[in-house]
Recover the amino acids of this structure.
């Protein structure tokens, strides 16, 4: 695939990489690459398991915390990342409004893990939890993520104590 033939996921990936490379703080930049792409991979896996659109889920994962890593400020990052994602996806011009709304809705809701939203929103929440856990399996799960993580282990058929 040449750069002229980049698919939508790769076009988003280019923008994400550009934003992250613009982060002056090396550790913040590293964390951004690790977390955003870890969540994106978890999104793809869960989308395939759940029969959802893996491309839209992967894109949501790549963009879900981008505003945090762009500014090194986690304040209200779900809302800010949803706004930034809408700008990016609209500027790319290759996503339908319905797709943008699905992605941005999931991003806006991903921090509200104690409430249930739509299928794409829940998938992004679960992928975020999975990425947090898989980053270092020797660390205990984040307390507020334990119930969601336990349900994920069952869904994925993994016997794991949490």
């Amino acid at each position: 695939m040449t750069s002229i033939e980049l698919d939508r996921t790769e076009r988003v990936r280019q923008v994400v990489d550009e934003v992250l490379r613009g982060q002056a703080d090396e550790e913040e930049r590293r964390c951004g690459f690790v977390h955003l792409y870890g969540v994106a991979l978890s999104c793809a896996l869960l989308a395939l398991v759940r029969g959802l659109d893996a491309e839209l889920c992967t894109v949501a994962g790549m963009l879900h915390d981008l505003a945090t890593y762009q500014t090194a400020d986690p304040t209200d990052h779900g809302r800010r990342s949803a706004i930034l994602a809408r700008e990016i996806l609209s500027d790319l011009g290759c996503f339908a409004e319905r797709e943008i709304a699905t992605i941005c809705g999931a991003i806006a809701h991903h921090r509200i893990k104690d409430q249930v939203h739509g299928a794409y929103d829940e998938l992004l929440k679960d992928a975020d939890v999975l990425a947090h856990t898989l980053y270092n399996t020797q660390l205990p799960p984040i307390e507020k993520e334990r119930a969601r993580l336990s349900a994920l282990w069952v869904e994925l058929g993994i016997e794991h104590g949490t």
